[in-house]
Design a protein that fits this description.
Blueprint (H helix, E strand, L loop, with lengths): L1 E2 L8 E4 L9 H18 L8 H14 L7 H15 L4 H19 L6 H10 L5 E5 L16 E4 L11 H10 L6 E5 L2 H10 L3 E5 L18 E3 L10
Helix pairs in contact: 1-4, 2-3, 3-4
Length: about 240
């Protein structure tokens, strides 16, 4: 554990989910592959859709509505609907198809192998502080066995703009009825988690799971209060 800023008393801890409490890379790769396979077999008109066409549809939606990026689930759903319309499906077919594909996506998105270290660490920390999850993604803590550790979960889109915007950080403090300065946010991303939480007045912990060098990483904008290389190090805090 390394310290870069003076610590204040910690009265609650908030956590990012993806790549903080589990390795999300394999999950996303498998989910995208399974979703694309489902999409291609759903209707003959979709049989040869490829990843580039999918990216193009998403980019066009973002160009028309820059705020859609704050809700990745809604963005994906709308992109599926638009892709099906482009391929000649009628509106009702596209609506039903987009919903079916999203259900398939949600199933695979929840097939996450959460390490025992995460369960053990959160179990202990929850006896000391209220814990909260704050995510830009669409993993559902209820479906991956993590929800019992958290007082509540905040999700971008539903609960405000995505990190590093401060909407969800502010909302967490309001719901916890605590000053931002006494909440520690833990996350892997130096922009959305570290810079976002520091700028809004929280304490920040960077979880460095890939042996990165804070002084050499391009997106290192603001120093966290502390750095850890394994989640269990948080159990040393008091």
């Amino acid at each position: 554990m390394k310290f870069y800023r003076a610590r204040q008393q910690i009265e609650a801890i908030t956590f990012d989910l993806d790549d903080t409490l589990y390795d999300n890379g394999p999950v996303i790769r498998r989910t995208e592959a399974e979703t694309m396979a489902f999409l291609r077999q759903y209707h003959p008109a979709m049989a040869d859709i490829d990843a580039q066409e999918w990216r193009d549809v998403r980019a066009e939606l973002l160009a028309r509505d820059t705020e859609i990026c704050h809700d990745v689930t809604a963005w994906r759903h709308q992109a599926l609907y638009c892709a099906m319309l482009r391929r000649g499906l009628h509106e009702e077919q596209a609506r039903v198809g987009a919903e079916a594909t999203m259900q398939h996506f949600a199933h695979w998105r929840s097939q996450i192998d959460v390490p025992q270290e995460t369960h053990d660490t959160l179990t202990l920390l929850a006896t000391r502080w209220p814990l909260v999850a704050i995510t830009n993604g669409n993993a559902n803590p209820d479906l991956i066995g993590l929800s019992d550790y958290f007082q509540f979960t905040l999700v971008a889109g539903r609960d405000g703009r995505s990190k590093p915007w401060d909407d969800m950080y502010q909302l967490a403090a309001e719901r916890l009825q605590l000053p931002l300065a006494h909440i520690l946010h833990v996350g892997d991303d130096l922009t959305t988690d570290v810079a976002g939480s520091v700028r809004c007045g929280m304490q920040s912990c960077w979880i460095n799971l890939r042996a990165g060098n804070l002084m050499q990483i391009d997106d290192s904008r603001l120093l966290p209060h502390m750095e850890i290389s394994q989640l269990a190090s948080l159990t040393l805090l008091r």
